[in-house]
Each structure stands twice: as C-alpha cells, then as structure tokens.
Amino acid sequence: MKLMATLCLATYPDANSPAIAANSVAVVKQLDATLHAIAVNVDIPDVSNALSRYLLDLPSKIREVEATSRKFGKTLLEAVAKEASQGAVALTTQEIAAAPALMGDVAANQCRYFDLCLVGLSPDNPAARMTAEAILFGAGRPTLLLPDATDVGVLGHVVIAWDGSRVAARAVADARPFLERASRVTIVSATDEKPLPGKDIGERLAEGLRMRGLTVDAASIQAGERSIGAALQEHALKIGGNLLVMGGYGHSRVRDFVLGGATEGVLADLRLPVLLSH
What we know:
This is Nucleotide-binding universal stress protein, UspA family. The protein is α/β, with parallel strands linked by helices. The protein has two domains: 4-147, 3-Layer(aba) Sandwich (Rossmann fold); 157-277, HUPs (Rossmann fold, 3-Layer(aba) Sandwich), CATH 3.40.50. The protein is built from ten helices and twelve strands. The chain has helices at 19-30, 50-56, 58-87, 103-111, 126-138, 166-174, 176-181, 201-211, 228-238, 261-268, and strands at 4-10, 34-42, 91-98, 116-121, 143-147, 157-161, 184-190, 216-221, 243-247, 250-253, 256-259, 274-277. Helix 1 links the parallel strand 1 (4-10) and strand 2 (34-42).
C-alpha cells in the first residue's frame, strides 16, 4: 500500500517560504509516496457596518487581503507542482478557505485523510506555527516539520528522542517508513530533564529495533542549562542526524495550546526535520 502524504501551505497573514516545495517533494520521493498539497487561503467574514464601509472601505480591504492570500496559495502550489514534476512524484492539489481563527483547524481536518502531514516552519512565520500546532494536536496523524532555512537531504540517520512514554512510543511506530529506509538509527534519552521510567530504556528500545534488522546505537545526554528541545536538536546535528523523531506533548485549553518543553522548543526554533506524534 502506497504511503500518502499531505502538505498544508500557509498563506495568511504570512505565506510559507518557497523552500517548502523542494523540501516536501524531497521527503515524499524518499518515501516513494504520493503528495497532496493544500493551499489554506483566508476567508474573512464581513463584519463591517455602514460607518466602517464609509470611512474605511472594509469590504474592499477584505477582498484585497483575500486576493493576496489566494495569490500566495497559487504561487506555492505551482512551485510544488514544478518540483513534483522534476522529481517524478505523483501530486494532487487543492485550495480551501477558512476564517483566520479556523485556518489551522480546517487544515487539521483535511490531514486526517492521509498518512503523514508535512508543514514548513520558520521562526518569523506565526501562521505556519499555528498550522503546525493545530495539525499536531488535531489531525491524529504524524506531523513532519520541515525548516524553511534548511535544504532537506537524504534522511538516512534517524535520531529518536526516547523517554519511554506513550507519545514517544507512538512516534517510533509512526516513524516506521523512515526507519525502514534509514542507514543508521540513534536513540537519545535526556537524563536530567524529568524522571525516566527505568535505567537503560534507550538500550532496551535499541535491542528491539536491532531485532527488526536496523543498525541502532543508544546514548544518554544532559540538557544542562539548555531547553530540552534545543539539547535534542543540537545533539542530533552533532552526531550527523538528518531526522529527529519525538513525541508531541501538549493539550488544547480554550483554543490555546499548552505545550510540553521539548515540543515548544522545537516549534520555536526548528533546526532540522522533526517528526512529531501526539
């Protein structure tokens, strides 16, 4: 059965970088998957009254903003189509629209029909982060965060952040398509971030993965004064990791996300591709 990935593209108030086109196609090609790209355009409700229409011409401004969003969406979809054609990746595209406050939720709903969700992320794009959070906690599918500032190469060295928790186990299961294609796997446990469920939990997971035919090492690190998200990413990059796999901690509370430390650190400062599962 062929894997189906979806890419959700932010268009308002800031659009994804064009780099997401090449990065997403590179990942999908490595997985021998198909790609469905979705431009999430803005649909602003008309809440103007007679005075605001007279003084501010709100309807005209709303139409202008919506047209800009659609233009960004079409440009991004065209960039993805060009990369997919060059890479011989099967592609379908879609444009959807939602109110500003619901764009992330609408994207998450669309992602439920696919196996893997791709999101481009950069520190100066709050719209992309909102989309990533909504998909991570609302789609029920693994979410692969792709940094706009980095070209995604071969994801041959997979690093697993392991604390023995339910969400970490879910992330390992969701990472199977990447693990099956990996030339090397490293399991990393942070020993000073929170109590772990036992000693040598990384080695125990490593043994199980080795029995499945993978080349696996296990290591322990200490975050020290760094945030756990920064410590995990820095260690992954230090040992030549191409993909970090970890559980996504957090829950929604009155439409605000309460994030775990590692998840917050990754979303705030993404340095390499990270696969998150919740």
